Amino acid sequence: MRPVLEVSGLSTHFFTRAGVVKAVEDVSFALNAGEILGLVGESGSGKSMTGYSIMGLIDPPGKVVAGSIRLKGEELIGYDEARWQKIRGNRIAMIFQDPMMTLNPVLRIDTQMLEAVLAHHDVPREEALRRSREAMVKVGIPSPDERLLAYPHQFSGGMRQRVAIAIALLNKPDVIIADEPTTALDVTIQGQILFEMQKLCRESGTALIWITHDLSVIAGLADKVAVMYAGRIVETGTVDEVLDCSRHPYTRGLMCSVPACNPRGQPLKQIPGMTPSLLSLGAECAFRERCARATAQCDTMPAIGQDAHAVRCHHPLGAPT
Questions:
Q1: Could you tell me the domains of the chain?
Q2: Are 34 and 201 in contact (CB under 8 A)?
Q3: How high is the pLDDT of residue 261?
Q4: pLDDT of residue 273
Q5: How confident is the model at residue 321, as a pLDDT?
Q6: Backbone conformation region of residue 67, classed left if phi is above 0, alpha if psi is from -120 to 50, else beta
Q7: In this predicted model, what pLDDT tens digit does every residue of 212-230 receive, in sequence order?
Q8: How far from the centroid of its chain's Cα atoms is residue 255's Cα?
Q9: Below-70 pLDDT ranges, the chain
């Protein structure tokens, strides 16, 4: 079965006065229908820029300088804005962290949802309204007819995010990219949205990329995990392989920094040092200065392995003790 989305060797750079910022470097992964990929890493690791690159939302001074993005075999790199407008919101959709980046505060919800349908499909207004109502029900919004006539400010934060998800689902896209959409929500609402997204992916066959820094979210949601550090994927595999038997020192450090993984009463384990500036990345491993296993061999950046559970490290870890 051919993957729905194939990203290969993707590199996105920003050309600034201070130098070239390598926001995304040599990122590769594949996603099948109905599959959920968790893209994990700390702030500034390149997760969101990977999502924006796939959506064709990189503008000067940024540019996709290398790589391939294939949607059901169709190469997207090199498309002009007119062709991207036919794909965004139709075949690939994105859910942002702040729902107000999706919603216009001065327009009613029905106006915005109808526009999202009619921009891509030549259907009667009644059919577009039916699809909008159906999408609202799918994400658990009660009284959809009443809610469609409301304005965004009349919704709570959780409900606004549900509306943003409903808009992403309207045209039954092949791929949805969710950029930390539940970070600002309380745990109960977060759990409900995660359950609904997982269910929708299974039922509709839509592939989902869930961008987050929260490992506990990924543990219960994703099928596969890709861990990013300094613009590169450093470890990838199934959620059980990566979280239960992490092999890259950075991934193991993330796991050990979770409070639940530490003995009661003991200081919280931390990864020493700071993330390197993306302006000053050299030929060496980007994690070298923070890694206890670093040797002279780490003066060169290792290639990521080709196994199902792949790691970008000269000295990968074994099973956790």
A1: 5-91+207-311 (3.40.50.300)
A2: yes
A3: 67
A4: 85
A5: 41
A6: left
A7: 988 888 888 999 999 999 9
A8: 19
A9: 184, 261-262, 319-321
Question: Coil, strand, or helix at residue 230?
Answer: coil
Per-residue pLDDT tens for 134-189? 999 888 888 999 999 999 999 988 889 889 989 998 998 999 999 988 876 778 87
8 Å CB contact between 47 and 53: no
**Rounded CA separation 303/280 (Å):** 19
Nearest by Cα to 208 from 233, 164, 174:
174
Residue 320 has what pLDDT?
Answer: 47
Distance from C-alpha of 113 to C-alpha of 132, rounded to nearest angstrom? 6
Ordered strands of the 36-40 beta sheet: 92-95, 175-179, 207-212, 36-40, 224-229, 232-238, 310-311
CB-based contact 233:226 (threshold 8 Å): yes
Nearest by Cα to 99 from 146, 163, 17, 28 = 163
Task: Measure Cα distances from 21 to 15, 32, 282, 290 in Å.
Answer: 6, 31, 12, 21
Q: For residue 232, give both structure tokens.
A: 């590169």
Q: Give the pairing type, strands 207-212 and 36-40.
A: parallel
